[in-house]
Amino acid sequence: MNEIQYVGEHLLPGQIGHFLLILGFVSALFATFSFFKAANTLDNTWKKLGRIGFYLHGISVLGVIAMLFYVMVNHYYEYRYAFEHVSDDLPMRYILSAFWEGQEGSFLLWMFWHIFLGALLIYSAKKWEAPVMAVVMIIQVFLLSMICGIHIGFGDYVYKFGSNPTLLLRDTMEAPIFANAEYLTRITGRGLNPLLQNYWNTIHPPVTFLGFASTTVPFAFAVAALWKNSYQDVLAPMLKWSLFSGAFLGIGILMGGAWAYEALSFGGYWAWDPVENMSLVPWLILVAGIHTNVIAKSTGYSIRSTLLFFILTFVLIIYSTFLTRSGILGETSAHAFTEMGLEWQLVAFVLFFLFLGLSLFVLRYKNIPTKPKEESIYSREFWMFIGSIVLFFAGAIIAASSSLPVFNKIVTYFDPGYIGSVIEDPIPHYNKYQIWTSIFITILAGLSLFLRYREREYKAKHLRKFFIRALVHALLAAAITYAASFWISYFEVRYILLSWACWFGILASLSYFFTDGIKNLKTGAAAFSHLGFGLMIFGVITSGLNTRIVSTNPFAQRGLVDDDSLSKVISLIKGAPMFVNDYWITYERDTIDGQHRTFDIKFERIEDSVVVESFMLHPNVQFDRDFKKVAASNPDTKHYLHKDIFTNIASLPRSQMDISLAQEIEDSLEYKPYKPSLGDTIYTSKHYGVVKDIVFNPSLEDSFDLSVAVEIEFKNLDGDQVFTVTPAVGVKDNMIFEIPEVIEPFNLKLFLQDTFFTRIFNSEDQLNYAIYNVKKGASFLYKDYKIQLDNFDNTIDNDQYNAQEGDVAVGALLSVQKAGEKEEQVQPIYILRNGKSFSIKDYLPEFGLHIRFEKIDPVNESFTFSVAQDVRNINPINLLIAEDVPRSDFIIFEAKEFPGINMFWLGAIMMMLGFIFALSRRWKEK
Amino acid sequence: MKKTYIIGFVCIAAAIAIFLNASGDVSTYATFSDAETRSKVKVTGTLDLDKDFFYDPAEDPNYFSFHMLDNDGVSKKVVLTQPKPQDFELSEQVVVTGKMKDEVFVATEVLTKCPSKYKDEELLLRAES
User: Fold this and answer.
1) If you measure CA to CA, which chain B residue comes closest to A431?
2) In the A/B pair of chains, how many CB contacts fall below 8 A?
3) Is the pLDDT at B1 greater than 70, yes or no?
4) Looking at beta carbons, which residues of chain B come within 8 Å of A657?
5) Is the CB of residue B3 less than 8 Å away from at least one CB of chain A?
6) Which chain B residue lies closest to A397 (C-alpha atoms)?
7) B71: contact with A, CB 8 A cutoff
8) What's the pLDDT score for residue A50?
9) Average pLDDT, stretch B91-97?
């Protein structure tokens, strides 16, 4: 077979990219080996070689990223990655989104942050550089193996390592189109999933991946400490880096929640989805590790647990990567990447580091320093440690439940007949444990602040002071919990307890912050974070537990509904207000702009039958490219200080969601012909209409060169509903269009047939012109019309006239008057071009009058006009009317109220600020 | 006794208690006949394409009913008191959560598994202009 010479392909970027992938992989291996040697031999030459390997690796990965961007920005669809993630119509502002939509791009983003962090570590880690960088680089080897696309064959069996993003489309799929040498001119990219065409997807992944990547550093320090059997001076850098990681991973997770709440139709910020869970778990363990690290640094206790927590954090990060990217979650998760055949590689990734971390830990267990005496129960470190254990438990429970699909899969390897089990009702399942861990943590977050490090025996005076302080805060917290019950409901005792615990934590942190925290920023940051945590959890009680469904209509039930499945949505008919839960809600109008359809929804809040507040919300839906599907539904939210009102288009009528379905529905309609004359009444089975009038150039959505409509007044048989419609026919660019009218409440659709047009408007060859000569200011009579030449105008404004050099063009201003009718103005045009004369007629559609400016006689100052009138044949008017047309003028609408949701966000932001304060404080410590 | 042991003991006890408690929250995917005896179940199966589904949002947007074949091949009417999920007709597999009530399965949740749009898509051809 002959090789096809393809036209228009750009092969160089792919060759460079492929080369850089291999170079990056090899240099990462080289750097790992060199840093390993440097760590073991303390030889500076090896360290230098390691750095060279690192820089080479960094440049290679950055080069691959640059190459991928290059082919994506230029829409080189010969590359699979460009083909899969961009398209001609994708706005450039989504190019970053498109880059990390695919697994390969997100792996590259992850590696990018490792390179950034690696550079910082080389600069700052001093004696820890070699062992820490050896760990970072071996991780980088694993990550790069996911995208380098090396094929290793064992006989007939070929195993593919990774999915190479620099490959050509025609090398990765088989399609007949590749037989065409010019296939590139015929394909376009698939583009970015509309759900991800959102600025959140530009900012959320880089922060989350910085969080992911930064968990590597405490892990690397932990491994380095175990490896070098040196534990004391590792605690300070480990704490800095774990605070850094805690901040970014936390912000990343919260941004995911904010995205889900603001821009996706989830209707909340947290759904206990496995993917969300598995990003939360490492963060919880990381925070447990931060606390034990603080203990270890201050007192020398808890070094073992610190190391173990940081090892587990990183292993859980890659475990969550395995869950999201291997497709194992299947139907249990709403958001996961598409499968890529990397399952076993990901399993190896997780197991390697789990084994590495744990075996080192077990091997060195006896060498890790501990204190001979246990912590006193009066000391802060004791209760901080208990808090860390609770955090660890919270994470472990979530991880275990989210891993059920993995467990099922493993068992089926041994017992193929095994039927996997699932959690029946995930949300209550997770909540019931996390309520208790939250209660413990919020209490401990407050209580531990009142205690001191290394307190061996509390003197009676101290002890009394401590109990009084705790008691005062506990009572105040109880008072606030009670007061809040006038605003929100608790439903169950455990929520009362949780609220009390939150307020205890909040108040204790507050009072600590203003007494001790102000003086000492280190503990001040902790108090600030704890305060934020308490507020955040209380925000969950107010906004999550007390979510109020506004859009519930108790009358639209069928008696089948359980207590736990209240109706959540209502149908809103365009223009028809509906009263639900204190609000008049009106779907006023909608506008289509590109692939978006935006709805204007008016809310009016009623108190004592008076409108006390009125506002508009604009949720929208985004269609896919061929308008066959609603690809994304984007909510809109009204924000108050004390609550949010969240609105979302839950669904649309079928004909409005799928253009092909709309056609199908149209084709299934049965149109009946009607032939009334002007003034006649027509009867359909449930309605009747009177043909009132003919309207010339009616106002229509599209503009037409010329159009005519029939005005019909329709009533139902009771006569209490009246609608006036104007089905029309119009001409644009010499094509006749029928413009139908729909009466949604009557389920009627009306067409005026195009033959009507030719019976109203005559073509030029059907006209008989009469000729008149007239002077300026004089008039003449054509039939019943008095036509007067008023003036001339040399500025010509007419679509049909294209001015040319040397033209003489004159417009005549004529007024036309028929007895008893309004006077009309016309402006026919006379043109002299290259010694030849033309005329452009003017037309009065209502009268059917055509008027031409034929000649100018300059000697006699006389002007020649020709006038003709359409011969009209109005009756019968040809109408087509369909009955039982499905309504399409309504939306399925969802509205919810989230009370106190700002407390959640404020608390979350404060908690993260606490991390950043602590980080900046620790960073200055030398 | 050392506090470490007490903490360890409490942790182990808590872990066992949670495990025993949580095992009540899980169950295997059920069939309609299981649903007769159990309170709340998840049933997997496929759409019964011989029978129509009903959804008239203009009348009641919170009522959607269809027929589903469970893994034993038994067909039952399922009622969901929520809007019809998108692309429902295309789904290969359906998971419904709920309980039986007078020969009708009343679902609180319906999960559908659709053929992935972004995977099996044909090459998009440029519109000939």
Assistant:
1) B22
2) 132
3) no
4) 86
5) yes
6) B18
7) no
8) 96
9) 80
Contacts with B123 from chain A: Cβ below 8 Å = 175, 177, 187
pLDDT of residue A888: 86
B120 — contact with chain A (CB < 8 Å)? Answer: no
Contact in structure between A214 and A244 (CB atoms under 8 Å): yes
Residue B82 lies in a domain: yes
**Does residue B22 sit at the A interface (CB-CB below 8 Å)?**
yes
**Alpha carbon distance A98, B24 (integer Å):** 43
Question: Which of B2, B20, B39, B62 to probe the A interface (max A CBs under 10 A)?
Answer: B62
Flag if A421 and B26 touch (Cβ within 8 Å).
yes
Work out the mean pLDDT of chain A and round it to a whole number: 88
| Residue among A761, A778, A776 at smallest CA distance from A704 | A761
Q: Which helix (H) or strand (E) holds A838?
A: strand A836-840
Can you give the pLDDT at residue A333?
59
Enter the tokens of residue A852: 């031409």
Q: Which residue of B has its CA nearest to A174?
A: B123
Question: A2 pLDDT band (50/70/90 cuts)?
Answer: low
Domain count, chain B: 1
Q: Which of B64, B80, B124, B129 to mutate to test the interface with A (most CBs of A within 10 A)?
A: B124
Enumerate the residues of chain B whose CB falls inside 8 A of the CB of residue A564.
108
For the stretch A598-611, pLDDT in tens is 999 999 999 998 99
Over residues A494-538, the pLDDT tens digits come to 999 999 999 999 999 999 999 888 888 778 899 999 999 999 999
pLDDT of residue A239: 95
Determine, for residues A887 and B11 on separate chains, whether the beta-carbon distance falls below 8 Å.
no
Q: What is the pLDDT of residue A331?
A: 58
CB contact (8 A) between residue B97 and residue A433: no
Q: Identity (one letter) of the amino acid at A336? A: A
What Cα–Cα distance (Å) separates residue A420 from each residue in A364, A403, A416, A777, B112? 39, 12, 10, 96, 18
Residue B52 in contact with partner chain A when CB distance is under 8 A: no
Query: How do residues A851-899 score in pLDDT, each as one tens digit?
Result: 888 888 888 888 888 888 888 888 888 899 999 888 888 898 999 999 9
Closest CA to A531 of A251, A919, A240, A915: A915
Which structural domain, as residue segments, surrounds residue B37? 29-113
- At A354-365, the pLDDT tens digits run 999 999 999 999
Residue B51 placed within a domain? yes
Q: Which of B10, B27, B81, B104 to mutate to test the interface with A (most CBs of A within 10 A)?
A: B81
d(CA B15, CA B13): 5
Among A235-239, A495-499, A541-545, A662-666, name the one with the lowest average pLDDT.
A662-666
**Three-class secondary structure of residue A73 per DSSP:** helix
Cα separations in angstroms, A714 against A549, A677, A726, A735, A745: 38, 16, 11, 29, 11
Taking the mean position of all CA atoms in its chain, how far away is CA A484?
Answer: 34
B57 near A CB under 8 A: yes
Residue B111 contacts A where some CB pair is shorter than 8 Å: yes
- Identify which of A188, A400, A564 has the shortest CB distance to residue B108: A564
Give the separation between CA A403 and CA A381, rounded to whole angstroms.
Answer: 32
CA–CA distance, A838 with A832 (Å, rounded to integer):
6
**Residue B49 forms part of a structural domain:** yes
What's B43-95 look like in SS3? Answer: EEEEECCCCCCEECCCCCCCCEEEEEEECCCCEEEEEECCCCCCCHHHCCEEE
Task: Look up residue A840 and give its two tokens.
Answer: 């452009």
**Of the candidates A506, A494, A493, the residue with the CA atom closest to the CA atom of residue A536:** A506
Could A421 and B28 be called an inter-chain contact, meaning their C-beta atoms sit closer than 8 Å?
yes
Considering the domain boundaries, does residue B24 fall inside one? Answer: no
